[in-house]
Specification:
Rossmann fold, about 160 residues, single chain, alpha/beta
Length: about 160
């Protein structure tokens, strides 16, 4: 079972109910109780302003995580260069993001993987473009997070 932690908006987890994955939403109220949890994947989709008094605890959670999926469009006040041995995947509209989009229409989103990703099974996923149907859901961040997780897990 893969353990995923998420800080911030979580609209993507409904896509993973059958994926043998446990998702923990990390909040200011529960962060102290999970400070030593080792996440396979940690998603940071928030600017972390609610954690300003708990940055050391948050850094410990990041240190204990195998993958960090980070929204590169947000102004995040943690220096992730301290975690260079971690597998960091950035996502967003930022053209330097690992996972971004090159086209959005009412019906489709074209996701662009700009750098290779090493999966949990140590396989390499080469840069690619993937066309996804929106199915009426145009939440681009949700699609980018879901794509990143599916790529890491090879699903």
């Amino acid at each position: 079972m893969n353990l995923v932690g998420i800080i911030g908006k979580n609209n993507f987890s409904k896509n993973f109910k059958k994926q043998h994955m446990s998702i923990i939403n990390i909040t200011e109220k529960n962060i102290v109780n999970i400070k030593n949890v080792k996440f396979q994947i940690l998603i940071i989709n928030d600017n972390l302003s609610e954690f300003k008094n708990m940055l050391k605890t948050l850094e410990n959670i990041i240190k204990n995580s195998e993958y960090i999926i980070l929204n590169s469009d947000l102004d995040i006040k943690i220096d992730v260069t301290n975690f260079v041995k971690k597998k960091i995947i950035t996502f967003g509209f930022n053209p330097k993001s690992t996972v971004t989009t090159s086209s959005i229409t009412e019906e489709n989103i074209l996701i662009d993987l700009q750098r290779e990703i090493i999966t949990l099974e140590n396989n390499i996923v080469e840069p690619e473009e993937m066309l996804l149907k929106t199915n009426g859901n145009n939440d681009v961040y949700e699609k980018l997070i879901s794509y990143s997780i599916k790529t890491i897990l090879e699903k």
